[in-house]
Amino acid sequence: MARVARTPRTKAPTPSATPFGTPKLLAGGGLKTSLVQNVYAAIMETLDSGVLQPGDRIVASELAHRMGLSRAPVREALAVLAGQGLVELHPDRGAILRPLSPHDLAGIYEITGPVAAVGVRAAARRIREGNNAARVEAAMARIRRAGEEMAPHVGFYLVLNDYHYLLNAIGERPYVDFVLRAVNIEYWNRFLVKTIDLSVHAPKYVSNYQRMTDAVLAGDGAAGDAIMRYHCDWCIALLLGPAAKTR
Question: Which residue, among 144, 82, 116, 104, has the nearest Cα to 221 in the 3D structure?
Answer without folding.
Answer: 116
